[in-house]
Amino acid sequence: MSDLTPHDDHGSAPARLGHSPVADSPHTLRVADTDPKAAKRAERQVASMFLLSMVLVVAFIVCYWTIDKSTNIYIPVFGEVGLMTIALGLTSGLSILLIGTAAIQWAKKLMPDVEVVQQRHEMVSPEDATAEAVANYERGKEESGFVRFPIIRRTLIGAMALFPIPLVFLLRDLWQSPVSGTLTPAEILSTTIWKKGERIVVDATYQPIKAADLPIGGLVSAVPASLPEVQEAEGNLNARGKAAIILIRMDPAEIVSQQGDGWDYQGILAYSKICTHVGCPIALYEQRTHHLLCPCHQSTFDLANSGNVVFGPAARNMPQLPIGVDSEGYLIAMDDFSEPIGPSFWERG
Predict the structure, then answer these.
(1) Measured between alpha carbons, how far is 285 from 301 in angstroms, rounded to an integer?
(2) 126-184 pLDDT tens trace
(3) Which residues fall within 8 angstroms of residue 166, CB to CB, at 6 or more apart?
(4) Is 92 exposed, middle or buried (0-12, 13-18, 19+ CB in 10 A)?
(5) With contact defined as beta carbons under 8 Å apart, do 338 and 321 qualify?
(6) Phi and psi dihedrals of 286, rounded to 5?
(7) Which of 128, 133, 175, 195 has its CA 20 to 30 A from that of 227?
(8) Rounded to 5 degrees, what angle do the CA atoms 194, 198, 199 make?
(9) How many angstroms separate the CA atoms of 49 and 75, rounded?
(10) Full-prediction pTM beyond 0.85?
(11) Whole-angstrom distance, CA of residue 319 vs CA of residue 332
(12) What is the enclosing helix (H) or strand (E) of 45?
């Protein structure tokens, strides 16, 4: 007859069915369980973190109103970054971190520290499950010390009450009242530095491009010739993010439609490089089908047919840039994009 008696992991001492060795393990009390001074110290630590979280929310508001958006600082590896971006990120992030850290410290040092063993049972709940759940909730509320530690309770309420304030302030940047002589956010998003006569140059090398330089099936990532000067003057990459394009050459007979009459030059088409879904840069081109694939969410655009969406979550076609050549035969833009590039926004008409 085989031995059906359960044994422990070492195969020696027999174990009882339904018995958990955890229940017999000696329980070691924490310092805060036996020393009132240690408990009080832990209480002050938790309350201090909640209080510091509130201070950081106030610091967030101060940074938001006092730091000039154009002020940059140099950080190794990252280069020039906006001081306001760093300040807001640190204050809001640390505020959230302190709330979470304080809650963990509260649970580890002050809430009951006991082992609970629950035996397996059938999936069907007993009839008194609801009453038992309510009782457990009430016991947990009592054991948490929410009522017993008034300093923690008050600072927690204060930290949680101030926590949403940065989110409210950030909502302000979704819309701004136009200032006389300045562009509105909608106008800023709707225009790029492309203009009539602007030479098209290779991205990174800034070499001008002639039509003969681009073979059928070829693709080139390009930018406006004035981009380096604009970037230096503005101190950021905003202009690049909006003006980046791709040049594709195909047989003119394969062009089904364009977003404007004669916007190509001998089969060379220029489209925005920024996906209209969430703004990912695109350069995956399939020569045979003339499809452009976004690597982020697989939106696919037909560049031979006005850049229309043929697959994926994007809801708008890829904006096309009208192009031509100058007197020296170099490719130039004939105008800016006729519609905003990138993802849609509320004010877009």
Answers:
(1) 10
(2) 777 888 888 888 888 788 888 788 898 899 999 999 988 888 887 776 665 656 567 77
(3) 57, 60, 61, 64, 88, 91, 92, 95
(4) buried
(5) no
(6) -105, 110
(7) 175
(8) 120
(9) 28
(10) no
(11) 17
(12) helix 36-66
